[in-house]
Amino acid sequence: MTHRQLGLYIHWPYCAAICPYCDFNVYRARGADTAPLVDAILADLAYWRAQTGPRPLASLFFGGGTPSLMDPADVARVIETADRLWDLEASVEISLEANPTDAEAARFADLRAAGVERLSLGVQALDDPSLKALGRFHSAAEAMAAADLARQLFPRLSIDLIYARQDQTLAAWQDELMRALALNPDHVSPYQLTIEPGTAFARAAARGRLKVPDPDLAADFYTLTQDVLEGVGFDAYEVSNHARGHDNRSRHNLLYWRSQDWIGVGPGAHGRLGWGGERRASKALDRPRDYVDQVTARGHAIDELETLSPEAVRDEFWLMGLRLQDGLPLADAPRPALSDNKIRRNLEHGWMWQSDTHLGLTAQGRLLADAVIGDLLAD
């Protein structure tokens, strides 16, 4: 078994507005007093330190929501507290998600001074009509200016993009990708637009007011994305994540994909930790007020804590890990094992590859990742 690393995820639930495609645990900021939430997060960190004992942190990720709306002084407090409680590894990755509005870009220098070294910028699109349709509050010009500033301030820059949008053409997407690459990011996360239940986009789609590309065209978008990014030296190390060189891979997300350990702190945050030979899944209370009240009353805000069955541990290991280009080490595969017959069938179809030590998806298999992995894990 490889050495198990520990990461820390901080969920900041507030946003200036809720994007119509988003199904995350988020709330409108509306001038909320965030000081009680910050204090609760710091207290929750102390609780989790008592559970994990003295382990170094390999990564610290501020996600959301919109953590770039946090006061940089509060970001610094969280980083300092995490360092005091666990000790940050010398090579620790400290990431923060940000929106490229002018107001948030004005905080970038202070966020860098607070200790953030990797900025994940939610560009999403580089034309104003698409940004408006996606419910974004920044313009394409603001996105490019924010990326340019972030490039100057942060050692590593990642940008998120959404493709397969309504009425988008392959030619327009290729042009958009090239303009995004001109921003000189170290990491690009292009996500296919999906219609998530309960979102504004789901309601619009149900009324026939929103249509996304059919599966064949969506596959063409995916293939074009791979070709363009690989053509300029980006490694498609995960289905939706591309890095310029091994050192620019998201170390925090690799903890998820490799079934390592992470603590989830903040409203609605999820975590996974090994305890006495078992693996436990945790989830915090969703609503910020409930989260604060329960941390105050109990010292933590755990809403759900489950010891995962061996089958659930196995399924998570393969479900997450097979998305990686490098595949997964067979020596680390939890029991019960996958069906040899199913593996053999997928190898014969050319959807999987196997070496003496690893098992993974081929380029064709990655195009069909959800279906292939679903088949492998089906009873």
Automatic annotation (TrEMBL):
The keyword Chaperone applies. GO terms for cellular component: cytoplasm. SUPFAM superfamilies: Radical SAM enzymes. Residues 1-235 form the Radical SAM core domain. InterPro entries: Coproporphyrinogen-III_oxidase, Elp3/MiaA/NifB-like_rSAM, HemW-like, rSAM, rSAM_sf. It comes from the Bacteria. Pfam families: Radical_SAM. GO terms for molecular function: 4 iron, 4 sulfur cluster binding; coproporphyrinogen oxidase activity; metal ion binding. Keywords: 4Fe-4S, Chaperone, Cytoplasm, Heme, Iron, Iron-sulfur, Metal-binding, S-adenosyl-L-methionine. It is found in: Cytoplasm. NCBIfam families: hemN_rel. Belongs to the anaerobic coproporphyrinogen-III oxidase family. HemW subfamily. This is Heme chaperone HemW. It comes from Candidatus Phycosocius bacilliformis.
